[in-house]
Amino acid sequence: MTGPEETRPEGDEQAVEAANAALYAALEAGDLDRLTDVWVSGADADDVRGAVCVHPGWPVLRGRASVLRSYALIMAHTEYIQFFLTDVEVEVLGDVALVTCTENILSGGEAEAEGELGPLVGGRVVASNLFRRTAEGWRLWSHHGSPVLTSGADEE
User: Hey, is 86 helix, strand or coil?
Assistant: First the structure.
């Protein structure tokens, strides 16, 4: 029979995976309220190590308000987005967890004529999502996304 200490890491990994999935589900749904719930809040967000985000091609955003504002802008200008996550790895160390993954993104491009849907555009981003254990559960503390600019064929 195993004790709570022995089963905790596996449960933590599942909880972190669920929190990570909630991030992408909120983005796909364009639901800023759900996205807000994923990020650290209160004292966890206001301390020196508060929310940090780097979207591909953006400067570092620090602080919960700046991070959430960036997502509001992205959602306001994105008609459709879908994430297919691959290479998902979860590492839990105490009250901090790191999720690395590849975001295979399908999004709606700009329409040529008003009232029409734009073409679907694909892209890949590698992401590091850092979570903190809070009283409310695992919350996203830092997101860093970097575009994949190579096909991988050149890698040895």
Answer: strand
Q: How confident is the model at residue 2 (pLDDT cuts 50, 70, 90)?
A: very low
What is the DSSP annotation of 123-147?
Answer: EEEEEEEEEEEETTEEEEEEEEEEE
> Where does residue 87 fall: left (phi above 0), alpha (psi -120 to 50 degrees), or beta otherwise?
left
Is pLDDT at 137 greater than 50 in this prediction? yes
Give the C-alpha separation, 75 to 104, whole Å.
Answer: 17
What digits encode the pLDDT tens for the residues 115-129? Answer: 776 778 889 999 999
DSSP letter string, 13-61: HHHHHHHHHHHHHHHHHT-HHHHHHHB--THHHHSTT--EEE-TTSPPE
CATH placement of domain 4-147:
3.10.450.50
CA 156 to chain centre: 29
Tell me the CB-side half-sphere exposure of residue 86, using CA atoms within 13 A: 6
> How is the chain split into domains, by residue range?
4-147
